[in-house]
Design brief:
There is one protein chain. With 288 residues, the protein is of the alpha/beta class. It folds into 2 domains: 184 residues, Glycogen Phosphorylase B (Rossmann fold, 3-Layer(aba) Sandwich); 91 residues, Glycogen Phosphorylase B (Rossmann fold, 3-Layer(aba) Sandwich), CATH 3.40.50. 45% of the residues lie in helices and 19% in strands. It has a 7-stranded parallel β-sheet, sandwiched between helices. A 4-stranded parallel β-sheet has the order 10-9-8-11, sandwiched between helices. β2, α2 and β3 form a beta-alpha-beta unit. α3 packs across α5. The longest helix is centred in the first third of the chain and has 23 residues. The two termini are 34 Å apart.
Length: 288
């Protein structure tokens, strides 16, 4: 099967669940092509990106600036009204560009991740090309200020909807009033095989956290806990993998608590380096 993935950004280090899905499809013999609304321009990528030559399978739209010029010419007042309108017309322009590529690739199906701009773009591409589309709904895209009317339209037009939990399935059904049989639960799983090869090389008193440095992850509470823990275990090491907008605030907190010798910020790591960190950890703290 020839599958087109419509994503917000690719490659994106934090979206390993999407990368695992694409990699598994390729391992099973499917041809996968990626349509990225934006170029993430991340310096660190997961090994699978190179292993499966995914950048060679990835298409990006013309520069955002050029597309915006076209949109402003189309309707200057509407373009500047609000961000949602900007995103909508940007997706329309991108969908037209991507549809031509999708037809040349002779794709069998389109699949988008996240129910917002990527799914809207996939729906438009489907209408332009008559290629069926599906999408996966995750979390912020359906729980944070959802546009119910737009979401219902996307579900109605999709051949199927995927979500990682039964809670999400019931939520989507209650929110949009769509036939439950159209919504399928498929777990977002890690590539477990990569972790089976971990050889324990445990450093004493090492605690590991992995996650984006944003408020909802509650990283600061782990740091505050370390302040209490070093009273009994002064050698404990708290290693934090990830990056995000709260990085400076968290580093300032560490400094104010005199924890520079106990708390280390490692930044973003690819999966190979992450496995190395996991092999050293005594305790892993999972921030949902």
């Amino acid at each position: 099967m020839r599958i087109g993935y419509i994503l917000g950004q690719f490659p994106k280090l934090s979206e390993t669940f999407i990368l695992n899905e694409i990699s598994e499809l390729i391992r099973r013999g499917h041809d996968v092509y990626i349509f990225s609304l934006f170029n993430s321009k991340e310096n660190i990528v997961q090994p699978e990106v190179e292993e499966y030559s995914l950048l060679e399978r990835t298409y990006y739209p013309p520069s955002y600036h050029k597309l915006c010029i076209e949109l402003v010419r189309f309707d200057r007042l509407l373009f500047y009204r609000n961000r949602r309108k900007i995103n909508k017309f940007y997706c329309i322009a991108v969908a037209r560009h991507f549809s031509k590529i999708a037809e040349k690739l002779d794709l069998d199906v389109l699949h988008a991740h996240f129910a917002n701009e990527p799914t809207f773009t996939a729906m438009l591409m489907s209408k332009l090309t008559e290629i069926p589309f599906t999408f996966t709904a995750h979390a912020f895209d359906i729980f944070i200020n959802p546009d119910v009317k737009a979401l219902r339209e996307r579900i109605e037009n999709a051949s199927a909807v995927i979500t990682p939990s039964y809670y999400n399935k019931n939520y989507l059904y209650n929110l949009a009033g769509i036939d439950k049989d159209k919504i399928h639960v498929i777990r977002a799983c890690a590539n477990i095989e990569r972790f089976k090869s971990i050889k324990r090389n445990e450093d004493p008193f090492t605690i590991l956290t992995i996650g984006r440095l944003v408020e909802k992850k509650g990283i600061k509470y782990g740091i505050l806990a370390i302040k209490e823990l070093i009273k009994d275990y002064p050698e404990v090491q708290y290693r934090i993998v990830g990056s995000g907008p709260l990085e400076k605030n968290l580093k300032d907190l560490v400094k104010s608590l005199n924890l520079e010798n106990n708390v280390k910020f490692l930044g973003s790591l690819n999966s190979d380096l992450l496995i190395e960190e996991l092999s050293k950890a005594t305790i892993f703290i999972y921030h949902v």
